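Internal ticket - ligand job 340, 1,3-dihydroxyacetonephosphate:
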Amino acid sequence: MSERLEDIAARMMASGKGILAADESTGTIKKRFDTIGAESTADTRRDYREMLFRADAMKDYISGVILYDETLRQSAKDGTPLVELIKTAGAVPGIKVDAGSKPLAGFPGESITEGLDGLRERLNEYYELGARFAKWRGVINISDVLPTRGAVRQNAQALARYAALCQEAGIVPIVEPEIMMDGEPGDHSIDRCYEVTEFVLNTVFDELYDARVSLEGMVLKPNMVIDGKNARKASREEVAEKTVRVLKSTVPSAVAGIAFLSGGQSDEEATAHLSLMNELHNPSWPLTFSYGRALQAAALKAWGGKAENVAAGQAAFAHRARMNSLAATGQWKLDLEKAA
Ligand code: 13P
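stdout (structure tokens):
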């Protein structure tokens, strides 16, 4: 008998752990590798991910890993499937199933995420390959005039259809409506972000309800409420307070948990914000991280594409993972960064 969705979600939200988003598409990982001057080939992508999944830090701090299709099918250099490395570390393998965002017809400057056609069959295959949760990201652009009601509704409907298909397949959906902090023009205020986040989350939960998605068997992956990259910087306390406030006013308490994206925040900001939320604001759900850039940037740089740097890459990853683990229980402190 397959594992209950609620039990998988509970493992993903294990206390003091969070999710490693390592699901960069081939195009995105190439951009990351370009920053360290490394070539992006199937083997170098495998080597980089093998370095992360074999790190000791996985056992202590990581509850799940989001993979890209290629990685889910790859094996380590010694022939062990990468999925097995993740399971051995006690983490749940997951899979990005959306096919990326494309311009939305009739809505200049807005996009829609594709990938619903054939999704039922793909999910069944991913289940066989070992995935027990999935991710779909809706992209919401923000400015004085965006997003439009129509674009938000269409992205929410796609998220809801995806989530229902996941649950049918015995896979926990991570529902990710991302309001872009690092998009253009990026001059929006934190209060504009609050207003848009509130509208988007209300619309998403409305559609999830109509699609009969079980809230106990899903995880929400939201943005934090934060200024655009080109705007004034709100204090860390303000980000934490406004983020928990908007979540409490829109997310039903039956939702299994919330795991944030980092979205272009610096490593330390992403950690500090999460820690303050857990320390000061008594959230109604487990609140943890599902970071890509904010968990990997230091490790990628320390590795630099060279086999002799694997231990250094793993040490950098361990530090960041430990800081975020502390944040997931509200216990991170700035001097722990300095000490390292
Ligand atoms: P970032 O944490 O780098 O935003 O990535 C998380 C993710 O999975 C975005 O879809």
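Auto-summary: Residues 190-210 form the longest helix (21 residues). Residues 21, 23, 137, 176, 261-263, 291-294 surround 1,3-dihydroxyacetonephosphate (CB under 6 Å).
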